[in-house]
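Colleagues,

For the teaching module next term, I've prepared a clean inverse folding example: a structure given as tokens, and then the sequence designed for it. I'd like students to try predicting residues themselves before seeing the answer, so please don't circulate the second half yet.
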């Protein structure tokens, strides 16, 4: 059965995860089309979970932080290329539609974080928000878990780096501005394309490209160090926008820039192929051939040395274009350094008054 795009969703299928013994395949049973549409257009559900720990740590040499916090699992933005999709397989869900409709919220995140930072053995290091799923996806407006995490980090004077595709980050602008005055926060806005049509299907529930640029302007005007990350760069589809994104972000107040080449590990490769076949069928072969050319003949290569940038002639050309555009625009390719010197553990309230 031919997959049918669902309005407001990135994936066109609920492809079986790699851990399932049985594979599911859709077929036309000739029942009424309206019944099929209802069944294939799942509503978003949110499951509250109690986290035992909240700070994740990594030692990957190509990732510019050692600690991160993910307030949510799954992401309603529905970006078809999201490298976090395969993690939903660990929850017995599909990395396809399940990833963007079956969400998990760590409701005690702020409480667990406060306990972790209060531990005398804790050594302050930059914490990244948005390393896996977006901390400002739509349910944040209702749940405010990211905001509560930021409040704890401000209380401890702890540095944080935020990466998001949502203009909703400006909802916390007062808190972020206070932290920025102490050099405790930086924000990177992820913009992969300025084309609204592409963005509407590529990342259907993320903010529009224009809204993200406006958010860069708003954050910058509030004194918050803000950068742009061109991600993902999709060869033969969005790569032509690279320079325009960088110059537009600079005009809005961005001071730093980075980029990441499209990554298609595990189930994402077939999900992305499905998306291309539905939305850009005439470009499918060209895009995938370019991807393989930049990944040593494979759809994906997990080598730490090249997974973010790719390899080969086209990858080298892309890097040259990025560096030259940053130089012309006056964008730093080095992330704004934050301080850990102000870190403090707030004193615990005393159960009774002291004598003196």
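(Answer key — instructors only)
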């Amino acid at each position: 059965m031919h997959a049918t795009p669902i309005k407001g969703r990135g994936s066109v299928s609920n492809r079986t995860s790699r851990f399932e013994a049985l594979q599911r395949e859709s077929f036309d049973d000739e029942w009424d089309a309206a019944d099929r549409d209802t069944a294939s257009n799942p509503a978003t559900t949110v499951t509250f979970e109690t986290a035992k720990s909240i700070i994740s740590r990594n030692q990957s040499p190509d990732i510019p932080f050692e600690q991160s916090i993910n307030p949510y699992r799954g992401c309603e933005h529905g970006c078809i290329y999201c490298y976090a999709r395969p993690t939903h397989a660990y929850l017995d869900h599909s990395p396809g539609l399940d990833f963007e409709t079956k969400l998990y919220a760590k409701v005690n995140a702020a409480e667990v974080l406060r306990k972790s930072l209060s531990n005398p053995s804790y050594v302050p290091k930059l914490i990244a928000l948005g390393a896996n799923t977006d901390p400002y996806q739509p349910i944040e407006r209702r749940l405010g878990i990211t905001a509560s995490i930021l409040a704890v980090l401000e209380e401890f004077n702890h540095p944080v780096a935020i990466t998001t595709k949502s203009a909703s980050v400006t909802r916390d602008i007062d808190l972020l501005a206070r932290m920025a005055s102490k050099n405790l926060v930086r924000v990177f806005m992820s913009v992969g394309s300025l084309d609204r049509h592409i963005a509407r299907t590529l990342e259907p529930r993320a903010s529009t490209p224009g809204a993200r640029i406006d958010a860069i302007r708003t954050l910058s005007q509030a004194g918050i160090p803000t950068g742009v990350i061109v991600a993902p760069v999709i060869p033969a589809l969005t790569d032509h926008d690279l320079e325009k994104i960088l110059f537009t972000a600079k005009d809005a107040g961005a001071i730093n820039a980075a980029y990441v080449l499209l990554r298609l590990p595990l189930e994402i490769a077939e999900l992305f192929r499905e998306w291309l076949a539905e939305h850009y069928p005439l470009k499918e072969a060209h895009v995938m051939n370019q991807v393989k050319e930049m990944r040593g003949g494979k759809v994906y290569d997990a080598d730490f040395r090249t997974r973010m940038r790719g390899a080969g002639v086209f990858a080298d050309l892309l890097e040259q274009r990025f560096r030259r555009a940053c130089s012309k625009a006056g964008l730093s390719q080095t992330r704004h350094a934050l301080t850990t010197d102000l870190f403090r553990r707030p004193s615990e309230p005393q159960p009774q008054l002291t004598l003196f």
